[in-house]
Predict the 3D structure of the following.
Amino acid sequence: MRWKRVASMVLAFSLLGGTLIYADAAIQKIRLIINGSDVSDGGYMIDGKAYVPVRELNGIIDFDDATKRVNFTQPNVDLFVFKGDTPFGKVSVGKLKFNVFCQVDSLKVDISSVKVSIVGPDGSEKAIQSQELGKDQKDNFWFRTNDYTYDFKSAGKYTIKFYMKQAKSKEYELVSEKVINAI
């Protein structure tokens, strides 16, 4: 009788071990690069399909716990950087006064505010301006920052980031970026 119990335990552990090995082979963690930048969490390859964390795709994410549904919205955002009335994409090293113009359309969620910041080549981020939005700014609006003076201390890539905050959220979500080259 005792040998039957031992045999059934050996069989159960063998099946369990085989299942874990199969599951490990079917799910593989992969390195994920979006627009030339490594995503810290990476992604997964499951049965030949790549799965990417939706928060890495620069959009507004809304999770409805009741329906277990993720709503992802990526509004159309065009960013322009102006020195006076002249747009630019390259700048000389040194201080520069500029403003950022943002045109937003195809917005399908209610947002309460926007924020613009700049990230230097060293990764340091400075806020340029944030602003609460009125009720009339729904699916299509323009936003222009005040003039902002920034010191482009070294040559490299500087990134202008545009964030939105949903009306029912406490945090800003990145929705668009524009790169400025300092030479």
